[in-house]
Specification:
four-stranded parallel sheet, 120 residues, 13% strand, globular, alpha/beta, 4 helices, Dna Topoisomerase Vi A Subunit, Chain: A, domain 2
């Protein structure tokens, strides 16, 4: 299992959860054509090579929930489907933080929480 993050500092909060037992892949940023950051500027090719070898079964895309992070996640998912079709590509769930009130949640966050709901 490989967890894809944008920056090295993104590894720390994931490690603190004690929930992930795989390896990490740091992209070195996120896609941003406006800022001149294209796929070849990031470590995406290296990820594709890693994912298509070494018995990798799942790639968890843990890019930020920003416009650039979402665009990067979609790009990586499409590229992995082409280059490593046997690899499952997942995305971190997003939703309401623990201890928060619904009245303070924005529509996008609340919508994502509803879509990612699970049985109790």
């Amino acid at each position: 299992m490989i967890c894809v993050v944008e920056e090295p500092s993104d590894v720390i909060p994931i490690e603190r959860t004690n929930e992930f037992g795989g390896r990490y892949h740091v992209l070195g940023g996120a896609l941003s054509p406006i800022d001149g950051v294209d796929p070849e500027d990031l470590h995406i090719d290296e990820l594709l090579k890693r994912a298509s070898s070494n018995g990798v079964r799942e790639v968890v895309v843990a890019t930020n929930a920003t416009t650039t992070g979402e665009a990067t996640a979609l790009y990586i998912a499409d590229a992995l489907r082409d280059r490593a079709p046997r690899v499952t590509v997942t995305r971190l769930a997003s939703g309401l933080p623990v201890g928060s009130d619904l009245e303070y949640a924005d529509e996008i966050t609340l919508g994502r929480a509803l879509r990612a709901r699970r049985e109790l």
